[in-house]
Specification:
The protein is an all-alpha fold. The chain is rod-shaped. The mean pLDDT is about 80.
Length: about 100
Amino acid sequence: MEEKKSTSQDIEKVLKEIGEKIEELVQKGADAGSEAKDEIEKKIKELKENKTSLEAEFKKGKEILEREFKERSSDFKPKFEESKGLFKDGLKQIILAVKTLFEKK
């Protein structure tokens, strides 16, 4: 789960950086000549469209991962609870063994 959050945050950071680069291009385009300005505006439009589609794909992938995590966590929860109980029982047995060992001396 931690890795998933980190990956999501990394992707969001990249998308934010893309947005900032687009804004930089917009500013540079405003300062450029008319011929260069047309070319830059065309690139900006393409980048904005790509950013929008990337954001949509990211959101869709994030939803799929969250749904799968919820489904799988419900599958693993009973096994986890069983393992937790067995671990506690094992720990109790170790404590009893140590007590018995020290009581004999």
